[in-house]
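S., here's the first fold you wanted:
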Amino acid sequence: MTSRRNPAGLTMGVKLLLMISLLHKLSLAKECGDGFHESQQGICCKLCPAGTYKMYSCIHNGSRAACDLCPTGSFMDRDNWEEKCTQCKSCGPDEEVALACSVAQDTVCQCMKGLKRDADSGVCLNEKTHTDDAAATSAIVLACLLTLILVVFTVILLFRMRKPRWSTLKLKFNPSGVTNAKG
Protein backbone atom coordinates (compact mmCIF):
# COMPACT_ATOMS: atom_id res chain seq x y z
CA MET A 1 0.00 0.00 0.00
CA THR A 2 1.44 3.28 -1.02
CA SER A 3 0.47 6.63 0.37
CA ARG A 4 -0.24 9.40 -2.01
CA ARG A 5 0.12 12.99 -0.99
CA ASN A 6 -2.76 15.22 -1.72
CA PRO A 7 -1.56 18.74 -2.54
CA ALA A 8 -5.07 20.14 -2.15
CA GLY A 9 -5.35 18.55 1.32
CA LEU A 10 -1.97 19.97 2.32
CA THR A 11 -3.02 23.43 1.28
CA MET A 12 -6.20 23.04 3.27
CA GLY A 13 -4.15 21.99 6.33
CA VAL A 14 -1.86 25.03 6.02
CA LYS A 15 -4.89 27.30 5.70
CA LEU A 16 -6.41 25.69 8.78
CA LEU A 17 -3.20 26.18 10.79
CA LEU A 18 -2.99 29.82 9.72
CA MET A 19 -6.62 30.33 10.66
CA ILE A 20 -6.08 28.73 14.10
CA SER A 21 -2.98 30.90 14.63
CA LEU A 22 -4.90 34.03 13.69
CA LEU A 23 -7.80 33.13 16.00
CA HIS A 24 -5.31 32.46 18.81
CA LYS A 25 -3.73 35.90 18.33
CA LEU A 26 -7.17 37.55 18.30
CA SER A 27 -8.16 35.76 21.50
CA LEU A 28 -4.90 36.86 23.13
CA ALA A 29 -5.62 40.45 22.17
CA LYS A 30 -8.99 40.26 23.91
CA GLU A 31 -7.46 38.52 26.92
CA CYS A 32 -4.62 40.99 27.51
CA GLY A 33 -6.57 42.72 30.29
CA ASP A 34 -5.36 45.23 32.86
CA GLY A 35 -1.63 45.74 33.16
CA PHE A 36 -1.01 44.47 29.62
CA HIS A 37 -0.95 45.90 26.13
CA GLU A 38 -1.20 44.14 22.79
CA SER A 39 1.91 44.64 20.66
CA GLN A 40 1.75 45.09 16.88
CA GLN A 41 2.59 41.39 16.61
CA GLY A 42 -0.51 40.47 18.64
CA ILE A 43 1.43 39.53 21.77
CA CYS A 44 0.21 40.58 25.23
CA CYS A 45 3.05 42.48 26.90
CA LYS A 46 3.17 43.73 30.48
CA LEU A 47 3.04 47.54 30.66
CA CYS A 48 6.11 49.49 31.70
CA PRO A 49 5.85 50.67 35.33
CA ALA A 50 5.57 54.32 36.35
CA GLY A 51 8.93 56.10 36.03
CA THR A 52 9.81 54.19 32.85
CA TYR A 53 8.88 54.15 29.17
CA LYS A 54 8.75 51.41 26.49
CA MET A 55 11.86 51.00 24.36
CA TYR A 56 10.82 47.73 22.63
CA SER A 57 7.80 45.42 22.72
CA CYS A 58 8.09 42.03 24.39
CA ILE A 59 8.71 38.92 22.30
CA HIS A 60 6.81 36.36 24.41
CA ASN A 61 3.20 36.47 25.54
CA GLY A 62 2.92 37.72 29.12
CA SER A 63 6.49 39.04 29.37
CA ARG A 64 7.46 42.65 30.03
CA ALA A 65 8.35 45.05 27.25
CA ALA A 66 11.89 46.44 27.31
CA CYS A 67 11.49 49.50 29.56
CA ASP A 68 13.99 52.18 30.53
CA LEU A 69 13.99 54.88 33.22
CA CYS A 70 12.72 58.30 32.23
CA PRO A 71 15.62 60.66 31.46
CA THR A 72 16.36 63.56 33.82
CA GLY A 73 13.80 66.33 33.41
CA SER A 74 10.98 63.97 32.44
CA PHE A 75 8.50 61.70 34.23
CA MET A 76 5.82 59.03 33.76
CA ASP A 77 3.26 58.87 36.58
CA ARG A 78 1.45 55.66 35.56
CA ASP A 79 1.99 52.21 34.11
CA ASN A 80 2.23 52.80 30.38
CA TRP A 81 3.00 51.77 26.81
CA GLU A 82 4.44 55.17 25.83
CA GLU A 83 7.61 55.54 23.79
CA LYS A 84 8.78 58.63 25.69
CA CYS A 85 8.26 60.27 29.04
CA THR A 86 6.53 63.60 29.64
CA GLN A 87 8.64 66.74 30.14
CA CYS A 88 8.61 68.07 33.73
CA LYS A 89 6.89 71.43 34.14
CA SER A 90 8.66 74.52 35.42
CA CYS A 91 7.19 76.73 38.10
CA GLY A 92 5.85 80.07 36.90
CA PRO A 93 6.50 83.60 38.10
CA ASP A 94 5.83 84.09 41.81
CA GLU A 95 5.98 80.29 42.33
CA GLU A 96 8.53 78.00 43.92
CA VAL A 97 9.08 74.23 43.82
CA ALA A 98 7.15 72.44 46.57
CA LEU A 99 8.09 68.96 45.30
CA ALA A 100 10.81 68.41 42.70
CA CYS A 101 10.11 66.38 39.57
CA SER A 102 11.07 62.70 39.80
CA VAL A 103 10.88 59.91 37.22
CA ALA A 104 7.39 59.02 38.53
CA GLN A 105 5.92 62.46 39.40
CA ASP A 106 5.74 65.91 37.81
CA THR A 107 6.97 69.06 39.58
CA VAL A 108 4.56 70.42 42.21
CA CYS A 109 4.63 74.22 42.49
CA GLN A 110 3.34 76.51 45.24
CA CYS A 111 3.00 80.27 45.55
CA MET A 112 5.93 82.10 47.13
CA LYS A 113 5.55 83.22 50.73
CA GLY A 114 3.05 86.07 51.11
CA LEU A 115 1.16 85.15 47.95
CA LYS A 116 -2.00 83.13 47.44
CA ARG A 117 -3.22 81.24 44.36
CA ASP A 118 -6.30 82.84 42.79
CA ALA A 119 -9.00 80.17 42.38
CA ASP A 120 -10.23 81.58 39.05
CA SER A 121 -7.00 82.33 37.20
CA GLY A 122 -4.59 79.97 38.99
CA VAL A 123 -2.07 82.84 39.24
CA CYS A 124 -0.25 83.69 42.48
CA LEU A 125 -1.37 87.11 43.76
CA ASN A 126 -0.63 89.27 46.75
CA GLU A 127 -3.60 88.76 49.06
CA LYS A 128 -3.94 92.55 49.64
CA THR A 129 -3.74 93.35 45.92
CA HIS A 130 -6.41 90.78 45.15
CA THR A 131 -8.72 92.32 47.80
CA ASP A 132 -8.00 95.84 46.47
CA ASP A 133 -8.87 94.70 42.93
CA ALA A 134 -12.21 93.35 44.14
CA ALA A 135 -12.96 96.62 45.97
CA ALA A 136 -12.02 98.67 42.89
CA THR A 137 -14.29 96.54 40.71
CA SER A 138 -17.17 97.04 43.15
CA ALA A 139 -16.56 100.80 43.16
CA ILE A 140 -16.62 100.91 39.35
CA VAL A 141 -19.89 98.97 39.20
CA LEU A 142 -21.45 101.28 41.79
CA ALA A 143 -20.27 104.40 39.92
CA CYS A 144 -21.73 103.09 36.65
CA LEU A 145 -25.06 102.35 38.33
CA LEU A 146 -25.23 105.83 39.90
CA THR A 147 -24.37 107.45 36.55
CA LEU A 148 -27.14 105.50 34.86
CA ILE A 149 -29.66 106.58 37.53
CA LEU A 150 -28.61 110.25 37.12
CA VAL A 151 -28.97 110.10 33.33
CA VAL A 152 -32.46 108.58 33.59
CA PHE A 153 -33.49 111.16 36.21
CA THR A 154 -32.17 114.03 34.06
CA VAL A 155 -34.03 112.80 30.98
CA ILE A 156 -37.27 112.56 32.96
CA LEU A 157 -36.81 116.10 34.36
CA LEU A 158 -36.07 117.55 30.94
CA PHE A 159 -39.12 115.86 29.46
CA ARG A 160 -41.42 117.20 32.20
CA MET A 161 -39.97 120.75 32.16
CA ARG A 162 -40.14 121.19 28.45
CA LYS A 163 -43.51 122.41 27.26
CA PRO A 164 -44.38 122.03 23.62
CA ARG A 165 -45.02 125.35 21.81
CA TRP A 166 -48.57 124.53 20.85
CA SER A 167 -49.53 124.07 24.51
CA THR A 168 -48.75 127.76 25.31
CA LEU A 169 -51.36 129.00 22.86
CA LYS A 170 -54.82 129.39 24.31
CA LEU A 171 -57.29 128.05 21.88
CA LYS A 172 -61.01 128.62 21.90
CA PHE A 173 -63.72 127.08 19.84
CA ASN A 174 -65.28 129.18 17.11
CA PRO A 175 -67.97 127.77 14.82
CA SER A 176 -66.13 129.13 11.82
CA GLY A 177 -62.87 127.52 12.98
CA VAL A 178 -60.28 127.55 15.69
CA THR A 179 -58.70 130.97 16.39
CA ASN A 180 -56.14 132.38 18.75
CA ALA A 181 -57.60 134.01 21.86
CA LYS A 182 -55.49 137.13 21.24
CA GLY A 183 -56.74 137.68 17.79
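And the second, which I think is the more interesting of the pair:
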Amino acid sequence: MSIQTTLVFDIETVPDLEGGRRIHDLQGMNDGEVAAAMRSLRMAAKGNDFQPAHLQRIVAISVSLRQGDSFRCWSLGEESSDEAELVRRFFDGIEKYRPVIVSWNGGGFDLPVLHYRALINGVQAPRYWDTGHFDREAKWDNYLGRYQFRHTDLMDVLAMYTGRQNAPLHEIALLLGLPGKLGLDGSMVFDAFQAGKLAEIRAYCETDVLNTWLVYLRFQFMRGLLDTAGLAQEIERVKEFLRASTAPHWQEFLEAWNKG
Protein backbone atom coordinates (compact mmCIF):
# COMPACT_ATOMS: atom_id res chain seq x y z
CA MET A 1 0.00 0.00 0.00
CA SER A 2 1.29 3.46 -0.83
CA ILE A 3 0.80 6.98 0.51
CA GLN A 4 -0.36 9.76 -1.80
CA THR A 5 1.65 12.95 -1.87
CA THR A 6 0.53 14.49 1.40
CA LEU A 7 1.13 17.92 2.95
CA VAL A 8 0.36 18.35 6.64
CA PHE A 9 0.19 21.97 7.78
CA ASP A 10 -0.21 24.16 10.82
CA ILE A 11 -0.05 27.91 11.35
CA GLU A 12 0.83 30.16 14.27
CA THR A 13 -0.77 33.58 14.54
CA VAL A 14 -0.76 36.75 16.57
CA PRO A 15 -3.39 39.51 16.70
CA ASP A 16 -3.29 41.72 13.62
CA LEU A 17 -2.63 45.01 15.38
CA GLU A 18 -2.68 47.11 12.22
CA GLY A 19 -5.99 45.55 11.23
CA GLY A 20 -7.39 46.16 14.69
CA ARG A 21 -6.18 49.74 14.57
CA ARG A 22 -8.13 50.31 11.34
CA ILE A 23 -11.31 48.45 12.25
CA HIS A 24 -11.66 49.80 15.79
CA ASP A 25 -10.41 53.32 14.95
CA LEU A 26 -7.46 53.12 17.30
CA GLN A 27 -5.22 55.51 15.40
CA GLY A 28 -2.64 57.22 17.58
CA MET A 29 -2.27 54.27 19.96
CA ASN A 30 0.96 52.31 20.20
CA ASP A 31 1.00 48.55 19.63
CA GLY A 32 0.67 47.70 23.32
CA GLU A 33 -2.35 49.95 23.68
CA VAL A 34 -3.93 48.55 20.52
CA ALA A 35 -3.41 44.97 21.72
CA ALA A 36 -5.00 45.80 25.09
CA ALA A 37 -7.95 47.52 23.43
CA MET A 38 -8.51 44.62 21.05
CA ARG A 39 -8.53 42.18 23.97
CA SER A 40 -11.00 44.28 25.92
CA LEU A 41 -13.34 44.76 22.97
CA ARG A 42 -13.31 41.07 22.11
CA MET A 43 -13.87 40.07 25.73
CA ALA A 44 -16.84 42.39 25.98
CA ALA A 45 -18.33 41.08 22.73
CA LYS A 46 -17.62 37.34 23.02
CA GLY A 47 -16.51 36.57 26.57
CA ASN A 48 -12.97 35.68 25.49
CA ASP A 49 -10.11 37.66 24.00
CA PHE A 50 -9.23 35.37 21.08
CA GLN A 51 -9.40 37.43 17.91
CA PRO A 52 -11.53 36.34 14.92
CA ALA A 53 -9.89 34.77 11.89
CA HIS A 54 -9.77 37.99 9.88
CA LEU A 55 -7.80 39.68 12.66
CA GLN A 56 -5.15 36.98 12.95
CA ARG A 57 -1.72 37.66 11.46
CA ILE A 58 0.30 34.62 10.42
CA VAL A 59 3.85 34.50 11.83
CA ALA A 60 4.71 30.86 11.06
CA ILE A 61 3.53 28.11 8.73
CA SER A 62 5.01 24.66 9.20
CA VAL A 63 4.47 21.70 6.92
CA SER A 64 5.50 18.12 6.37
CA LEU A 65 5.67 16.64 2.90
CA ARG A 66 5.44 12.93 2.17
CA GLN A 67 6.23 12.37 -1.48
CA GLY A 68 7.69 9.35 -3.28
CA ASP A 69 10.12 7.75 -0.84
CA SER A 70 10.85 10.93 1.09
CA PHE A 71 9.54 12.61 4.22
CA ARG A 72 10.53 15.97 5.67
CA CYS A 73 9.11 18.57 8.01
CA TRP A 74 10.05 22.24 8.08
CA SER A 75 8.80 25.81 8.42
CA LEU A 76 8.18 27.86 5.30
CA GLY A 77 10.43 30.79 4.51
CA GLU A 78 12.91 32.28 6.94
CA GLU A 79 12.46 33.96 10.28
CA SER A 80 12.75 37.26 8.40
CA SER A 81 10.03 36.36 5.87
CA ASP A 82 6.95 38.56 5.93
CA GLU A 83 3.42 37.21 6.08
CA ALA A 84 2.82 37.57 2.34
CA GLU A 85 5.79 35.36 1.54
CA LEU A 86 4.69 32.67 4.00
CA VAL A 87 1.17 32.58 2.60
CA ARG A 88 2.43 32.60 -0.98
CA ARG A 89 4.80 29.71 -0.30
CA PHE A 90 1.99 27.67 1.22
CA PHE A 91 -0.31 28.04 -1.75
CA ASP A 92 2.59 27.65 -4.19
CA GLY A 93 3.18 24.21 -2.65
CA ILE A 94 -0.42 23.25 -3.40
CA GLU A 95 -0.06 24.57 -6.96
CA LYS A 96 3.13 22.55 -7.45
CA TYR A 97 2.23 19.22 -5.85
CA ARG A 98 -1.60 19.17 -5.64
CA PRO A 99 -1.21 17.08 -2.51
CA VAL A 100 -3.75 15.77 -0.08
CA ILE A 101 -3.56 18.36 2.70
CA VAL A 102 -4.04 17.34 6.32
CA SER A 103 -4.69 19.43 9.42
CA TRP A 104 -6.03 19.37 12.92
CA ASN A 105 -8.88 21.92 12.99
CA GLY A 106 -7.69 23.35 9.68
CA GLY A 107 -11.27 23.79 8.51
CA GLY A 108 -12.20 25.59 11.70
CA PHE A 109 -9.21 27.90 11.97
CA ASP A 110 -6.08 27.53 9.82
CA LEU A 111 -7.69 27.62 6.39
CA PRO A 112 -10.10 30.51 7.11
CA VAL A 113 -7.11 32.51 8.38
CA LEU A 114 -5.11 31.57 5.29
CA HIS A 115 -8.03 32.62 3.09
CA TYR A 116 -8.28 36.06 4.67
CA ARG A 117 -4.51 36.60 4.66
CA ALA A 118 -4.23 35.51 1.02
CA LEU A 119 -7.00 37.99 0.18
CA ILE A 120 -5.28 40.79 2.11
CA ASN A 121 -1.82 40.02 0.70
CA GLY A 122 -2.93 39.50 -2.89
CA VAL A 123 -1.93 35.84 -3.17
CA GLN A 124 -3.34 33.77 -6.04
CA ALA A 125 -4.13 30.08 -5.58
CA PRO A 126 -6.19 28.85 -8.55
CA ARG A 127 -5.60 25.15 -7.97
CA TYR A 128 -6.60 25.40 -4.31
CA TRP A 129 -9.86 27.21 -5.14
CA ASP A 130 -10.74 25.13 -8.19
CA THR A 131 -14.05 23.28 -8.01
CA GLY A 132 -14.13 22.28 -11.67
CA HIS A 133 -13.46 25.49 -13.58
CA PHE A 134 -9.87 24.58 -14.52
CA ASP A 135 -9.96 20.82 -13.93
CA ARG A 136 -13.23 18.90 -14.30
CA GLU A 137 -12.09 16.31 -11.74
CA ALA A 138 -11.87 19.03 -9.12
CA LYS A 139 -15.66 19.21 -9.10
CA TRP A 140 -15.66 15.98 -7.06
CA ASP A 141 -12.17 16.14 -5.57
CA ASN A 142 -11.29 19.58 -4.22
CA TYR A 143 -9.92 21.30 -1.14
CA LEU A 144 -13.14 23.10 -0.23
CA GLY A 145 -15.49 20.15 0.24
CA ARG A 146 -15.89 19.42 3.93
CA TYR A 147 -16.84 15.79 3.37
CA GLN A 148 -14.10 15.05 0.85
CA PHE A 149 -10.57 13.97 1.73
CA ARG A 150 -8.49 16.26 -0.51
CA HIS A 151 -8.33 18.34 2.65
CA THR A 152 -8.59 16.05 5.65
CA ASP A 153 -9.31 17.93 8.87
CA LEU A 154 -8.64 15.07 11.25
CA MET A 155 -10.30 16.73 14.22
CA ASP A 156 -13.50 17.33 12.24
CA VAL A 157 -13.58 13.88 10.65
CA LEU A 158 -12.97 11.96 13.86
CA ALA A 159 -15.69 13.95 15.67
CA MET A 160 -18.12 13.02 12.88
CA TYR A 161 -18.41 16.67 11.76
CA THR A 162 -20.55 17.55 14.77
CA GLY A 163 -18.25 19.90 16.66
CA ARG A 164 -19.55 18.45 19.92
CA GLN A 165 -16.85 15.80 20.28
CA ASN A 166 -13.79 17.72 19.08
CA ALA A 167 -10.61 16.62 20.82
CA PRO A 168 -7.31 18.47 21.38
CA LEU A 169 -4.42 17.26 19.25
CA HIS A 170 -2.17 17.08 22.32
CA GLU A 171 -4.48 14.65 24.11
CA ILE A 172 -5.01 12.41 21.08
CA ALA A 173 -1.25 12.33 20.52
CA LEU A 174 -0.68 11.28 24.14
CA LEU A 175 -3.29 8.54 23.84
CA LEU A 176 -1.34 7.17 20.87
CA GLY A 177 1.97 7.22 22.74
CA LEU A 178 3.24 10.28 20.89
CA PRO A 179 5.03 13.25 22.50
CA GLY A 180 2.22 15.75 21.99
CA LYS A 181 2.99 19.44 22.34
CA LEU A 182 6.52 20.39 23.34
CA GLY A 183 7.76 23.80 24.49
CA LEU A 184 5.09 26.42 23.85
CA ASP A 185 1.35 26.21 23.54
CA GLY A 186 -0.95 28.40 21.51
CA SER A 187 -1.69 30.81 24.36
CA MET A 188 2.03 31.65 24.64
CA VAL A 189 2.69 32.52 20.99
CA PHE A 190 1.93 36.26 21.15
CA ASP A 191 4.21 36.80 24.15
CA ALA A 192 6.93 34.73 22.49
CA PHE A 193 6.55 36.74 19.29
CA GLN A 194 6.81 40.03 21.15
CA ALA A 195 9.98 38.71 22.81
CA GLY A 196 11.50 37.94 19.40
CA LYS A 197 11.39 34.17 19.91
CA LEU A 198 10.32 33.30 16.38
CA ALA A 199 12.65 30.31 16.21
CA GLU A 200 10.84 28.79 19.20
CA ILE A 201 7.46 29.48 17.58
CA ARG A 202 8.54 27.78 14.35
CA ALA A 203 9.90 24.76 16.24
CA TYR A 204 6.67 24.46 18.23
CA CYS A 205 4.62 24.67 15.04
CA GLU A 206 6.74 21.93 13.44
CA THR A 207 6.16 19.54 16.34
CA ASP A 208 2.41 20.09 15.99
CA VAL A 209 2.71 19.16 12.32
CA LEU A 210 4.64 16.00 13.11
CA ASN A 211 2.13 14.93 15.75
CA THR A 212 -0.64 15.48 13.19
CA TRP A 213 1.17 13.41 10.56
CA LEU A 214 1.63 10.52 12.99
CA VAL A 215 -2.06 10.65 13.97
CA TYR A 216 -2.93 10.70 10.27
CA LEU A 217 -0.91 7.52 9.71
CA ARG A 218 -2.98 5.77 12.37
CA PHE A 219 -6.12 7.15 10.72
CA GLN A 220 -5.05 5.72 7.37
CA PHE A 221 -4.35 2.39 9.07
CA MET A 222 -7.82 2.48 10.64
CA ARG A 223 -9.32 3.14 7.21
CA GLY A 224 -7.44 0.17 5.75
CA LEU A 225 -5.35 2.35 3.45
CA LEU A 226 -2.19 1.29 5.30
CA ASP A 227 -1.54 -2.25 6.45
CA THR A 228 0.56 -3.18 9.49
CA ALA A 229 3.79 -3.36 7.50
CA GLY A 230 3.06 -0.09 5.74
CA LEU A 231 2.34 1.71 8.99
CA ALA A 232 5.58 0.42 10.52
CA GLN A 233 7.49 1.54 7.43
CA GLU A 234 6.03 5.04 7.59
CA ILE A 235 6.81 5.36 11.30
CA GLU A 236 10.39 4.26 10.69
CA ARG A 237 10.65 6.83 7.90
CA VAL A 238 9.73 9.55 10.40
CA LYS A 239 12.23 8.26 12.94
CA GLU A 240 14.94 8.26 10.28
CA PHE A 241 14.14 11.92 9.63
CA LEU A 242 14.40 12.69 13.34
CA ARG A 243 17.63 10.75 13.82
CA ALA A 244 19.23 12.58 10.90
CA SER A 245 18.42 16.00 12.36
CA THR A 246 20.58 17.92 14.82
CA ALA A 247 17.79 20.39 15.67
CA PRO A 248 17.16 20.38 19.45
CA HIS A 249 13.37 20.20 19.12
CA TRP A 250 13.60 17.10 16.93
CA GLN A 251 16.02 15.45 19.33
CA GLU A 252 13.62 16.24 22.17
CA PHE A 253 10.69 14.88 20.15
CA LEU A 254 12.47 11.60 19.38
CA GLU A 255 13.56 11.14 23.00
CA ALA A 256 10.02 11.77 24.28
CA TRP A 257 8.58 9.43 21.65
CA ASN A 258 10.97 6.63 22.57
CA LYS A 259 10.00 7.01 26.23
CA GLY A 260 6.27 6.99 25.40
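Why I say that: The chain has a mean pLDDT of 95. The longest strand covers residues 56-67.

Talk tomorrow,
H.
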